[in-house]
Amino acid sequence: MPGIYIHAPFCDGKCPYCDFYSLPVSKERMDRYTDKITEQLLRYGERNLSAPTVYFGGGTPSLLGARRLDKILDAITKSFSLEDGAEITLEANPRTVDKAFFSAIHKSGFNRVSIGLQSGDEQELVLLQRRHTVQSAAEAVRNARAGGFENLSVDLMLALPGQTKETLGRSIDFAAGLDPQHVSAYILKIEGRTPFAARYRPENLPDEELSRELYLFMAEKLENLGYSQYEISNFAKKGYEGRHNLLYWHCEEYLGFGPSSHSFYEGRRFFYPADLKMFLDGTSLVSDGTGGEFEEYAMLALRLTEGLGRAVCAKRYAKGTELFDAVLENTKKCPSGLLRADSEHISLTKEGFAVSNAVIGTLLSSF
Question: 294-363 — its CATH code?
Answer without folding.
Answer: 1.10.10
